[in-house]
Amino acid sequence: MDLTELRALLARHARPDMRTSIDGVLISKVERRTPPTTSMSGTVLAFIAQGAKQIALGDRVYEYRAGQYLVASVDLPVTGRFTRASAHAPALGFGLVLRPALIAELLSQAAPGDLPPLAGGAPSGMVVSDAPDELGDAVVRLLRLLDRPRDATVLAPLIEREILWRVLTGEQGAAVRQLGLADSSLSHVARAVTWIRDHYAQSFRVEDLARRSGMSASAFYRNFQAVTSMSPIQFQKQIRLQEARLLLATHPNDVTGVGVRVGYESPSQFSREYRRQFGAPPSQDAARLRGVTRAPAPAVV
Fold first, then answer.
1. pLDDT at residue 179 greater than cutoff 70
2. Which pTM was predicted?
3. Are strands 126-130 and 68-72 parallel, antiparallel or unpaired?
4. Does position 294 have pLDDT exceeding 90, yes or no?
5. From the CB of residue 198, how many other CB atoms can be counted at a distance below 10 Å?
6. Which ranges does the record mark as transmembrane (predicted)?
7. Which of 172, 176, 45 is nearest to 107 (CA)?
8. What are phi and psi for residue 16, nearest 5 degrees?
């Protein structure tokens, strides 16, 4: 695949906030290798045109480089870093926010046999593949519309559908396909993920969360682990620690209060788990965090 035009378009239209004039389209440009940072992945298709990035999710590590794409079908707590980027050859990436309603619409329009049958169980919430030429071509045509705003209103939604169709019919289509199915295992897990994110400071029983998600406890635990590479309790801890770090950016002198606010009853446990996650105790890390805010765009782009 020739990535020359794609790189030129990404470099020309990149902005610090990653946003573009086309809704749901993101562009990243990074000019140096970065230390590991934690954030939420977003539900997104990320296509790397230059450079390389590494994403850690639980005990899994994903690496993707120029000519490859990553699909995050659930909003997951990840640790990411650019492993290949410089001022001379910046890492350049394209992102497309995945919309379950649009995916569901495409699935309803597919003829019988257009899509392979789904395997049993939930797919991983994050997958990486080599991008076929057809997908790269559609991404280029979508980005060209940034220079043609008059055409973008009508044509951008059509090309977005084409991009999704290329992914749905590709080797990682199951992850995106289940995102558009309201009763899929992945959708059940995604509902549980949303609940944990919204109530991360609260204790819960896995059995109750499984019931809320419409699954048996054993099926829920198995599918949650398959999608997120974590148990529900481990997932909650990741969310708590990420939220704690954001709070410490604005409340650096209230370590104990921040720990309580995110759900920790024991200050020593909070400090121990925080240090294990971020490499420094909360009080020391807080001194480096002034001005840090929530990531404005998905972390995997």
1. yes
2. 0.88
3. antiparallel
4. no
5. 10
6. none
7. 176
8. -55, -35
Query: Nearest to residue 80, comparing CAs of 106, 48, 49, 103?
Result: 48
Backbone angles phi, psi at 258, to 5 degrees: -65, -45
Whole-angstrom distance, CA of residue 155 vs CA of residue 171: 26
Is the per-residue pLDDT at 293 higher than 70?
Answer: no
Write out the two tokens for 269: 């446990």
Q: Please, what sign has the CA dihedral across residues 3, 4, 6, 8?
A: positive
C-alpha dihedral over 241, 178, 42, 22, to 10 degrees? -170
What's the CA gap between 274 and 277, in Å, rounded? 5
- Upper half-sphere CA count for residue 134 (Cβ side, 13 Å): 10
- Provide the phi-psi class of 67: left if phi over 0, else alpha when psi is between -120 and 50, else beta: left
146 DSSP assignment: G
Residues 6+ apart with CB under 8 A from 19: 26, 296, 297
Residue 301: name the closest of 29, 37, 21 by CA. 29
CA distance 84 to 69: 16
